[in-house]
Automatic annotation (TrEMBL):
It comes from Hymenobacter saemangeumensis. It is found in: Membrane. The keyword ATP-binding does not apply. The chain crosses the membrane at residues 33-59, 79-100, 107-127, 133-154, 166-186, 192-212, 245-266, 313-331, 337-361, 382-399, 405-424. This is MFS transporter.
């Protein structure tokens, strides 16, 4: 690994709407190379995280059928219930791991979270009832909540500020391809074995973590006893800071509208759109996450080329709005192959996930950075808990539909995209911002 010193920063740029103080230290934080162990291990960790996170969407129908749930309406309702349990676990885990990341260190979260979700996923392969399935998805959700935020925080603090976007781009591009492996394993080896493989990959990754060093910025702050670290509730005690935090959360909501509603319910949308053949959630997930690989690469690269995180995010939100329109109104009566190609385009359009987490990390000081970078994506993922009942209300029951499946999804998508675009438009630009400071 190549190392070079970065100076201690006294008064960060782009610090609008925040109470912040300089951090002094006798030894400056160090930076590392773009292809260092930190970046590689964070990318592989996110790969396993995405594998396990998206696996249920791929094996939902088959696993529920093996557990005795075969009626179409029950497959939908029980599937949404299990997704809500997983997302509820991620909400709890986001707070837990975020606080631990700022109090005990970024590496402690990387180790603890992957151990928890690996063991939970191995246990998931043995379930015999829906209740067992639900509780293990909740536990797995708690574990899955820590990986991305801690990894992005560690990479952001370890790379020079001019290369941060490229580092998180690598993490995202490698990471989201874990969904492609999840599809292949789920189709070839069966749903129970797919959970065993996910757990095994996570445990194997723990061996690689030994080569990773803690963030120098965190170590400097840790040495200062007067600096309060990981105070989650301080995000809510100062109005401008709370506003900045909420806007960070809202940016990620459209992605989970697309993945949690449009892609997860692919069979239901396929029937509503009158496609000429059946579509599966597994293939919809495969193609959308294949698109995410390209989208995450492009969004990270554009944010570097344009020297603007916000401009890249606005571009992708506009692209997402166009693709949602095509998905809901542009392919009625088409073939399944056309549907899957649109899923690929949707995936590209929401490929700003790691960029969104990077922006969240760059908006806050070292003593709160892991808390924000870990809670933000998990609260965005957890928005599914609100999106699902809203979608069910807008669309209405099959017997007495309000707007119907397609129009209900269109209304919900428009709302999520509008609030995300507003959030990006009002956040301070964070490209090139010095992160070596603390929040009071």
């Amino acid at each position: 690994m190549e190392f070079g010193a970065t100076p201690v920063h006294f008064g960060p740029p782009n610090a609008a709407n925040s109470v912040q103080s300089p951090k002094s230290s006798s030894s400056p934080a160090q930076t590392t190379g773009l292809f260092s162990a930190v970046v590689i291990v964070a990318a592989l960790g996110y790969f396993v995280d995405i594998y396990d996170l998206i696996l249920f969407s791929i094996v939902r129908v088959k696993s529920l059928a093996d557990l005795g749930v075969t009626a179409p309406d029950q497959v939908t309702s029980q599937g949404l219930f299990l997704i809500n349990m997983q997302m509820g676990g991620m909400l709890l885990g986001g707070i837990l791991w975020g606080i631990l990341g700022d109090r005990r260190g970024r590496l402690s979260v990387l180790f603890g979270s992957i151990l928890l979700y690996s063991l939970a996923n191995i246990a998931n392969g043995f379930v015999q009832t829906i209740d067992q399935y639900a509780w293990l998805r909740l536990i797995a959700g708690v574990g899955l909540a820590g990986e991305l935020g801690a990894g992005i925080t560690l990479v952001s603090e370890s790379l020079p500020k001019e290369k941060r976007g490229y580092g998180t781009m690598i993490v995202a591009t490698v990471g989201v391809s874990g969904a492609l492996l999840a599809y292949w394993v789920g189709e070839k080896l069966g749903w129970r074995n797919a959970y065993f493989v996910g757990g095994g990959l996570g445990l194997a990754l723990l061996l690689l973590r030994v080569s990773v060093m803690e963030s120098g910025m965190f170590q400097q702050v840790q040495a200062q006893s007067e600096v309060k670290r990981g105070d989650f509730f301080s995000l809510f005690t100062y109005g401008p800071r709370l506003s900045r935090y909420v806007r960070c959360l809202l940016i990620g909501v459209p992605l989970w509208f697309v993945i949690g509603i449009l892609i997860t319910l692919a069979p239901e949308f396929g029937r509503a759109l009158g496609l000429t053949g059946e579509v599966t959630a597994g293939l919809a997930v495969f193609w959308s996450y294949f698109g995410l690989v390209f989208g995450d690469f492009a969004s990270g690269a554009l944010s570097q080329v344009w020297h603007s995180r916000n401009r890249a995010l606005k571009f992708f939100l506009g692209f997402c709005a166009a693709m949602v329109g095509v998905y809901l109104y542009g392919i009625k009566g088409s073939t399944p192959n056309t549907y899957y190609m649109v899923c690929f385009g949707l995936g590209v359009s929401v490929g700003f996930w790691a960029l969104f987490v990077t922006v969240a990390a760059e908006q806050f000081g070292t003593n709160l950075r892991a808390t924000v970078a870990t809670t933000a994506p998990n609260f965005a993922r957890g928005s599914v808990l609100l999106l699902v009942p809203l979608f069910q209300f807008f669309s209405g029951p099959a017997a007495q539909p309000r707007l119907g499946l397609v129009n209900g999804a269109a209304l919900l998508g428009a709302l999520s995209l509008l609030v995300a675009f507003w959030a990006v438009s009002t956040l301070p630009e964070s490209y090139g911002k010095d992160l070596d400071y603390v929040e009071e």
